Structures are given as structure tokens and as C-alpha cells.
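Memo to structure team: turn this sequence into C-alpha cells by end of day. - J.P.
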Amino acid sequence: MAAALVLGARRGGVLLPLLVLPLATPVLIFGASAADAATNGRSFGPELDLLGAFLALALVLCPLAAGSGLRAATS
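Reply from structure team:
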């Protein structure tokens, strides 16, 4: 998705990390928290629920954002 958004940008290499890092950070945090909870014998259900919510949101919004970015890059 982020690659499609920066496709036509002049400084896409600088813009790409600025778009990807805020989206990847919560997934990394909740994934590590779920792994830690599972390792220590605690309940890891809430973390997996949040990761599932992120996935459901990404499945809906990523194709829309990628299509919009590709249309803007070709125009």
C-alpha cells in the first residue's frame, strides 16, 4: 500500500518509512505482547483480538489506498 502511495513522488525513499512505521509499530507492539503473554502462561486473547482488528481494517483499507495512490501516480 505505501509503495503505491509513493510511486509518483519525487522523494519516495524518504516518504516511505514515514508512512510505514506508524502503521507497523502497533502490530509489532501487540505481537510481541501476545508472544510474551503466551510464553509466561498468561492470557493472550486480548492482544490477538487487537491484531485481528488491525488485520480486518487493513484488508478493507489497503486496496482502497493502493488504488488511490496508483491513480494519483498515473495522472
